[in-house]
Amino acid sequence: MAVGGEARTEERDYYEVLGAEPSATSVELRAAFRDAVLRHHPDRATASELATRRTAVLNRAWRELRDPLRRLHYDHDLERGTAATLNWPLEVDETPAAARRRRVPRAAQPPSRWHQPQWRNVAGFRVPAEVFMAGPSVQNDWIVANQIAGEDWRTHSERYWLRYAAGYYRERGRIDDWIGTMERLVELDDAFDTLVQADLRAAYISTGMLLRGIGFLRKVAERYPASSSQRRWADRELRAMLGEFRDQRVRRGTVEDRAEAAELLLNYLEALDMEPGIPDVRATIVALRRAGHLGRAAEVVERVASQPVSEPARWFSIVQLLTEAGQLDRASSLLAALARGDHPAALDRRRIGGDPVRRIAAARRRLVRARERAAAATRRASRRELPSTTALADQSSPADAVAAGVR
Description:
Blueprint: E1 9-12, H1 14-18, H2 26-39, H3 48-65, H4 68-80, E2 86-89, E3 119-122, E4 125-128, H5 129-134, H6 136-148, H7 159-171, H8 175-188, H9 192-198, H10 200-207, H11 210-221, H12 229-250, H13 255-271, H14 278-290, H15 294-306, H16 314-324, H17 328-340, H18 349-352, H19 356-406
């Protein structure tokens, strides 16, 4: 406040100058400024010098508060008690207001224990600030040296730790630790998104741990209801892994190993309550027949052929299966029944996904070729038996000659 002969003033914040509240809208603030300017305009006031000074103060306050961003900063300063003020000129007989609004600065708050600028967060790990500033390579080396190396993943349940450790183990070829870490992560986190992002099928296929993967995914699939989309996704993953097992173990390897893997494939399908697909059955029959297990191969064919057919296209697959198994008469009878229309669904183009006439013709051509191969095999077998019979006749001729000479 001024002293002596100088003009008397009073400190006011910008809102007090305009006669508005800090909570006023931009429209209300503009209206308050206009009213104040009209009230203190030099043409209307008795003391033109005082009115001029007050109008200048009003314009200065309005320039600050009309801009939304500058007003926001001013409001923050007002709450902290550090907002700028203006000297509002007073008339000679005007008494300063005793109950003006004042902002009391807040007491200094102690720093939060969570605010630790010497540390930074990287992939869930707390690393020193200087390591953070050094870049990703240094960050990775520090995390490995101080958090991963020498630790046993079986003792950890932190998901961020398991994710980082899985990548570390994979890069260094530690297959068992990598797969074990991913399995533990999926076990601890029930979220379906975690299961999908883990991409366990690719991990099991790349490492050859197909049977382990099939068992683990089967256990995980039991979390979800049978009719849920998550369960259908898990079943597709299982079916894909079984197909990979069929291609790697049943169709490749030694004869005995292939036969053993074929039996194992059927057992897994039965345990998972999955119907064996035609590719699974064909690979199994081929493996068993090459190993000399003809009786077992015939049992598999009989089991598949006697099962109820749920998909019309499966009828043509059964005909092909019987043809390849050598049961040509049975395949011919079934194909004739299909051609007569005994199974109408098998002649529905939409349900079988193709032209039934072409499929019947293709099945007949396979039957004809199979009969030709069977006839050729019979002729070759008869020709192999003929030389042995001739040899026996040649061996008996000298003896007969001697006997004839004695007589």
